[in-house]
Amino acid sequence: MAPEAKAHDAQTHDAKPHDANPHDANPMKPEEVLRLIAAQRGTAICVPTMTTGPEWRAIAPDDLSVGCVGFMGGASSLGLGLALARPDRRVLVLDGDGSLLMQLGSLATIAGAAPRNLVHFLFKNGVYHTSGAQGIPGGLVVDFVTMARGAGYRAALAVHDVEDFKKQLPEILKMEGPVFVELHTGLAAQTPMTARGGVPFPEQVTKLRAKLLRPRATT
């Protein structure tokens, strides 16, 4: 076996095993998880989608973000494009389980492209929250960690507890990507349907492009 394959195997299977029981008595609050990510993201480009969008706008209104709006399921592919275009920056996708189910093929595409700077966070709540909290196919039983591992992500793990996430996050953000993190969360307080506002996608893209073209500040 080639050294690269051995390294991939070790990173994939040495990740903290996920709990076979998908039901959490006290799921993490997505808002708290997002605040933890925001506090440690540094200069990363962030791609929120659906129910992660409203809270992220409130937490980081003018950072390097582009919200995946108007094309449900596209956050992972959008994140991949940004990661390949800007290998000098970490890219964090803040995905939803309902969204990812609409574009599962992106897992294989991301794994095949193997962007070392991509972290794919999945907020798992078992429903299409934005459209009325209808259950997704398979509900909470769907095992996205196994899917990501099978697709070929360099590392894939699940996190059920916010204190555990707080401890693991610094290391997660340093890991060689693509990294997949399934976050077991409850429902967000706001959705794009209840929290109106935000910036149209084309305008977000224009603003992000302008920010990325600016020379980095030197110390």
What would the keywords be for this entry?
disordered N terminus, two-stranded antiparallel ribbon, globular, alpha/beta, 40% helix, 219 residues, Rossmann fold, 9 helices
Write structural notes for this entry.
By secondary structure, the chain is an alpha/beta fold. The chain has one domain: Thiamin diphosphate (ThDP)-binding fold, Pyr/PP domains (Rossmann fold). A hairpin with a 5-residue loop joins strand 4 and strand 5. Helix 2 packs parallel to helix 8 and helix 4 (75-85) runs parallel beside helix 6 (105-113). The protein has helices spanning 3-14, 30-40, 53-59, 75-85, 97-101, 105-113, 144-151, 162-172, 201-213; strands at residues 45-48, 91-96, 118-124, 127-128, 134-135, 155-159, 179-184. It is globular, with a radius of gyration of 16 Å. It has a five-stranded parallel β-sheet with strand order 1-2-3-7-6, with helices on both faces. A two-stranded antiparallel ribbon has the order 4-5.
Report the count of strand segments: 7
Radius of gyration: 16 Å
Number of helices: 9
Mean pLDDT: 80
Envelope shape: globular
Q: Strand-residue fraction? A: 5-15%
